Amino acid sequence: MKKLLLATLLGVTLSSPAFALTEGKDYEILKKPMPQIEKDKIEVLEFFGYFCIHCKNLDPILLKKVKTFPSDTYFHTDHVVWDHDAHLGFARLAAAVNQSGTKQQANPAIFSAVFDQQIDLNDPATTTKWLSEQTVFDGKKVLAAYNSFSNQTQAQQMAQRTSDFGVESTPTMIVGGKYKLLFPNGFEAGMTTLDELIEKVRQERGMKNPAPKAAVKTPKSKGGSFAVQAAK
User: Fold this and answer.
1) Per-residue pLDDT tens digits for 102-149
2) Which of 16, 45, 103, 199 has its CA 20 to 30 A from that of 6?
3) Which part of the chain is the Thioredoxin domain (predicted)?
């Protein structure tokens, strides 16, 4: 009987790993849950600001981490809008980056323009000119999204969510619409906490372990290899 009980307890331990997380230190539970865009997956949501130096410092760490997300987890960003005059232009740019799928390439250039070059990318005229000149990323593609019919609507939605969920600081990261990630030991250490919160949400929802991501096929011909390099 004792052996059976020990085996049962061991099985529970192996199937439900203990989390080395402390509420109030590593994370907080939101008073008001946030609806996810994709309900059948685990959302990692960042409220950020292109004007925020902490967001600038977190961005390269987070963009690298996102590439390792399991197949049941996705990343979404909202630009905060606390003041329409000071932030809505930035939100339009963030919406355009999201829509064009260029975050990995565009964000470093945008943060550099704002902080290193002191370019006012909250101003639509300045942003339009700046995007049209970019070659490090597809500036024209982002500009097309920036000028699209839905762009201002998406920016207004970011402003509404900033207000609805009482976002008071940046960066604010929400996992599974429930947990606010804290960074007591810095951004790098916070990525481990992020992994654990994702797993915590997965277990609470009774989700299966995620399927492996599809491997990226390596081109067999030189011509195919050149095409891949050109697309990057």
Assistant:
1) 999 999 999 999 999 999 999 999 999 999 999 999 999 999 999 999
2) 199
3) 10-206
